[in-house]
Amino acid sequence: MIISALRRAFAGTATTVVMAGITVLTPPSLGAVGTAAAANCPDIEVTFARGTSEDPGLGRVGGAFVNQLRNKVGGRSVGAYAVVYPASYDFLAAADGANDASAHIQWMAENCPGTRQVLGGYSQGAAVMDVIGAIPVPGIGFNNPLPPEAAGHVAGIAVFGNPSAKLGLPLTASPVWGGKVIDLCNAGDPICQTDGQSVPAHKSYAGGPTNEAANFVAGLL
User: Fold this and answer.
1) Among 199, 192, 206, 130, which Cα is nearest to 163's?
2) Taking 50 as the threshold, does the pLDDT of residue 95 lie above it?
3) Catalytic residue among 104, 164, 183, 202
């Protein structure tokens, strides 16, 4: 299961893989988002889940990804929603992030149907997106699955340092989402590789990898 993948991925690294969180955008609460006028809908909306121990917000990787994507979409407006969840070492709470992300994705689809949605996550945040994508099964406590029609609103998904990749189940394996996904794992990253031993590799997604992902997603928008 996804939660088991998280536990395996972080085993032995939980005391050292702690990110310095940089909040690039502070999202409104889901309730506040729900009151926004449809006229204010962005052309593109990124829903991103930060990594373990990062401060609330998009996190360092999510912030870099959103900023790089903005430079590649021809002046179209890009909104961003930071998934609300603890991002703690209680990995069962990744399901809380999946429920929150799913609620926001569904709200956007209903209230901003013309907005192209992009999903993303880093480290435990990537596992949040795994839960939504049901790779391999829904996570414990996930009770707000996306309806089938939601797939038509999601243009692309970008995940970084994904724990499920360590089990040979990258999000690209999803029969629903696979063609829309870029699932990046740095060489030596112990969170997404069985033989990875480099904690710095897990911390090094903001920059080249996020730019690669932004190029991939921009090509789908």
Assistant:
1) 192
2) yes
3) 202
